[in-house]
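General statements about sequence and structure are easier to judge against a single worked case. No coordinates are needed to read the tokens, only the vocabulary itself. The sequence in question and its structure tokens are set out directly beneath this paragraph.
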Amino acid sequence: MMEEIPVYLFTGFLDAGKTKFIQETLEDVRFNNGESTLLLLCEEGEEEYEPSTFSGHNVFIELIDDQSELTPTNLERLQKKHAAERVIVEYNGMWMLDDLYQNMPDSWLVYQEFMFADSQTFLTYNANMRGLVVDKLKSCEMVVLNRADEKVDKVEIHKIIRAVSRRTNIAYEDRTGEVYYDDTPEELPFDIEAPVIQITPENYAIWYQDISEEPDKYKGKTIHVGGFPMVREKLPAGSFIFGRKVMTCCVEDITFAGLLCTGGNPKTLRDDQWIELTAKVAIKHNRVYNKKGPVLNVIDIQPGTAPAEEVATFY
């Protein structure tokens, strides 16, 4: 059985505070007590590391100059070169995360992933490089936004992050170094306690994300929502996929976001036909998801009119 190598991944753009945080972490004896640690630098920022102040002096720094160096063979070579028991990665904000995840050695396992951002420039990055911002938000456990002050639009930042993930924790660090957590209310734009939860076309993306991430809170609920059916021969008898195209960040990432439906008469449905679906939500294991997930048990299907915006978005 191969030895598991824990990986601590820090993402974000230049001057976002990654180096400072990693430096302070490696100075903390509670984290760094002498374990052999490989520190991979995928970019060089203005701040430089000071290894002499690390708590444990068994930290080995290697520079990854180009994405072509992100290969399983090369990464494993660097880890074995220093007999590293764990790996810390300061990732280049301009590189897509899949380039790292798809090329990590089999024994490497990401234990924690944090994104760092300058709260003063976060909205600008999102407006101009949304694809890169979404890429860093989609799998991180926490976003740390530094240089925060009273002028920062925390509501807008909250909305942007929640459009990508409803699970990511959001923390702010002010200019004095004090850290506090985002307290923007988590309000859904529909009433989940209503006898029939009404999902408007404008709210489809938010609803789909929410029911996908927290399906259990919809168990036994009745919903009314509009979308398109997808009838396929390989699906279980009497079932179809119901959903809509959803865009998270840009045209290139548009995907059909749908859920399994059972009941009704799928053979009478067409893929290009907008329907108004009323269904009761069950949480079941099925081979379509290959795990437990929300299944919509049809109560009623009526023809409807598709909205002018075919693709659902988060805002």
In short: The longest helix spans residues 154-164. DSSP finds seven helices and 14 strands in the chain. The longest strand covers residues 291-303.
